[in-house]
Amino acid sequence: MDNYEKIFADKLKSLRKQRGLRQNDVANAVGYSEKSVSKWESGKVLPPVNALLALCDVFGVELADLLDIKHETSYFLGIDGGATKTDFVLANANGDIIRKKRLGSTNAFDIGLNAAKALLTEGINDICRGISIRKISMYAGLSGGTSGNMRQIFGEFFNSFGFNKALSGSDANNILSAGLGNRDGVALIMGTGSSAFIQKDGKVYRAGGLGYLFDGGGSGYDIGRSAIKYACMQEDLMGGQTIINDLLRQKIHSDTVSGSLDYFYSCGKAAIASFAPIVFEAYDKGDAVARQILCDVTEQIALLLSAAYKRIKSDFIEVVAVGGLTNRMDALYPFIKKHLEKLSLPCEFDIKVYNGSAVYGALLLAGMPPKSDFLQIFNS
């Protein structure tokens, strides 16, 4: 027989700590003494019915959640946490969207682990409000979610909510799930950062994704950084003339680019990546420096794909490309193709931009049945 006193005690402590409450805060909220709350958390006694119901109101959960009673999965929560935004979607067993929410980045390496947990907690509590947490199975694919010991840390974090099932991994797993299913292939990330996640026989391997300090290109950050670099080189008479300098000065409202170095060093990598469109604008106008920048940064993309070939070892490899840079594949693909030809790989890469929602992949990994019109509903 279940020891509901102990189960309840563990659950009460978990909910209280998730919300940053002290025992005294809970006591005041339900109209009991701090000593009573301490006794409930000792696992020796259950609260009276009226106190149980009051606790449900305080934490926004059902009684079954407080007692950690298992349910059949009735809902699926998918979380897609990228470098700039995080999507939360709750769907029912038919794949119908119940709620959706978008918050900022949950990359623990960018904003800190505590800030990432706080944002995830906010999103989960809001989107799951009024629904028994035990009826929900969830999957969270997070940027940086598998680096170092983050998989274990986030695994324990999500399990503390009391979901029917809680799994987590990288945001690339969402793309692999949504874009490839179980097929061998590559999720090519071309956003603020760059990386490739290679799926072979059900296993996933990473290439790149070492962060802006150590990756060799292929990202919005690298293009934006190069824009600043070459604009400054023009001002120092170390490089050729480029309209990137004019465009960049207009954007930052400054007489010189080098005069804004303090800002560049403090604004963060997403802000640096936001200067990438300037390079594409210059490229469209025939700027030679912009062309060289795009040629240089795309070499990393070719190297990522060569790593995929070494893993998959096939003469045809399916590639699902995602991220902000894919909006300009018209400019980037010719350079990528040129670099691949230099590598002389005996393989054809079928590169397609994934225009769907990565959070759909998270829902599939949470156990939701496939939904053919999900994207149409999600965007409505």
Describe this structure in words.
The chain contains 18 helices and ten strands. With 380 residues, it is α/β, with parallel strands linked by helices. Among the domains are: 4-66, Orthogonal Bundle (434 Repressor (Amino-terminal Domain)), CATH 1.10.260.40; 75-179 and 358-378, ATPase, nucleotide binding domain (Nucleotidyltransferase, domain 5). It has a five-stranded mixed β-sheet, with helices on both faces. Helix 10 (220-235) packs across helix 11 (243-252). The protein is elongated, with a radius of gyration of 25 Å.
**Count, helices:** 18
CATH topology of the domain at 75-179 and 358-378: Nucleotidyltransferase, domain 5
Return the string of H and E elements. HHHHHEEEHHEHEHEEEHHHHHHEHEHH
Strand order of the largest sheet: 3-2-1-4-5
Class of secondary structure makeup: alpha/beta
Cα-atom Rg, whole angstroms? 25 Å
Query: Superfamily at the CATH H level of the domain at 75-179 and 358-378?
Result: ATPase, nucleotide binding domain
Q: Give me the CATH architecture of the domain at 75-179 and 358-378, please.
A: 2-Layer Sandwich
Q: So what's the CATH class of the domain at 75-179 and 358-378?
A: Alpha Beta
Helix content: 40-55%
What is the distance, rounded to the nearest whole angstrom, between the alpha carbons of the first and last residues? Answer: 48 Å
Query: What general form does the structure show?
Result: elongated
Number of strands: 10
Strand content: 15-25%
